[in-house]
Description:
Layout: E1 2-6, H1 13-24, E2 27-30, H2 31-44, E3 59-64, E4 67-72, E5 75-76, H3 84-93, H4 97-112, E6 116-120, H5 123-127, E7 133-138, H6 141-154, H7 161-177, E8 190-193, H8 199-212
Parallel strand pairs: 1-6, 1-7, 2-6, 7-8
Antiparallel strand pairs: 3-4, 4-5
Amino acid sequence: MIIAVDGPAGSGKSTVADIVAKKLGFIHFNSGLLYRGITAYLLKNELDINDVKKEDIILETSFIGDVQHVFVNGEDYTPYLRENIVSINSTIVGKNPITRQIVDDCQRTFCSANNCIIDGRDIGTHVFPNAELKFYVDCNVKVRAKRRFLEEQEKNSNVSLKAIEMQIIERDETDKNRKIAPLVQAPDAIYIDTSDLTIDQVVELMMKYYYELGLTQK
Ligand code: DC
């Protein structure tokens, strides 16, 4: 079974997907990490982020304990995936059709063989249009910026709240307006605005919809 969770950067989709996965005994597959993995590979090797060749990249992902690791050409890029520089550039890398093909292949192969809750931008619209359950998780920009700012502070980063807000607005623009598989709500996705909800409330809502489906785990 596939549960698709799409939404903009910082909407909380990954946090809630993680908890729902644990409750259901599903794998939480974070598709953004694959784009981040390719981005980290390009940045760390000082390669052109706009010039990705399919034959140059072997993308793999696997779970070590609960942690999703991302390997490019056999090297583990997991330690770099959450860096702010990787966040900003992953949006640009995500525009590239070749990158998207590489990521699509990787996620379809992995998720077709497992019960997964997958979060991303195009899961319900493009990657798994037949997903049994789809959510579109939204949140206003100010709240998202505040959440990301607090995360950055925990990492002792000195990036300002205003800068993060600007980055989010720019990333939204790019994610929503790119030509291939842009961020858009699937017509059959359930819309959840998390701006005024706690994590527990969002999880509760998702679980309610899951049980309403009357589906049992395969
Ligand atoms: O969810 P995230 O912030 O980790 O995603 C990083 C970038 O990867 C995002 O800005 C665009 C790209 N992405 C995408 O294009 N499609 C997805 N399904 C997931 C992420």
